[in-house]
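Request from the bench team (R.T.):
"We need a structural guess for the complex before ordering more zinc ion. Sequence and SMILES attached. Just send the tokens back."

Command: build protein-zinc ion structure.
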Amino acid sequence: MTKIEIPGPGSKFDTVEEERLHRKQRLAAAFRIFGRFGFDEGVAGHITARDPEHLDHFWVNPFGRSFKQMRVSDLLCVSHRGEIVEGDGPLNRAAFAIHSQVHAARPDVIAAAHAHSIYGKSWSALGRPLDPITQDVCAFYDDHAVFDDFTGVVLDLEEGRRIGHVLGSRKAVILRNHGLLTVGRSVDEAAWWFVTMERSCQSQLLAEAAGTPVLIDPAVAALTAEQVGSHVAGWFSFQPLYDVIVAEQPDLFD
Ligand SMILES: [Zn+2]
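Reply to R.T.: structure attached below.
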């Protein structure tokens, strides 16, 4: 018995408007959760959700708005050309350069998350992938890459394209000297991968500071990856975080 049975999202929407509102609500909640975890660093960081109707458009946070105060009504809808087609506020050009190219390269991806969280960026400075040293980090076993070419703030579409290329079909990429980027088939999934990847970076930094971590055997790491690293597992792991933030900060729905 190696399979873990967990419920999936199972959401069905009667209209595209309902689906759009659902995505925007999950997105606003994801920002509040990132704020709660302290993933914000000034104005850096962005999470995007593909529009369910206009598939080359995505929803994103306005530049300069705190993650901790994000509301559904704050979100911007941006076209593949970088035009703001809905919402008020400035667009972070780095958010556009990276996320537009990731969404274009990965039609299966609904959401992408990137922030300058402290352990992710610290780990990124080492230029190494994460090792299979805990059950949780096995979600990324053979499923993340390192983009080892830091050239300053990503403002160029071509660099976003190269990040998308290095990401490939994986769920995450470590941007060397910069931070983490995760993707998912739902906002829930992308946000959860970010949370657990950040904590996996913290875990490996702690373990290596204290000694030499014991690696999980490759076959066991691969099995554990199937158990904790599936799309459904990523979505499911986000649900308790969502429930708590909605109960505590219902104004995120404004
Ligand atoms: Zn960044």
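Two things stood out. The CA atoms of residues 141 and 242 lie 26 Å apart. Residues 44, 94, 114, 116, 178-179 surround zinc ion (CB under 6 Å).
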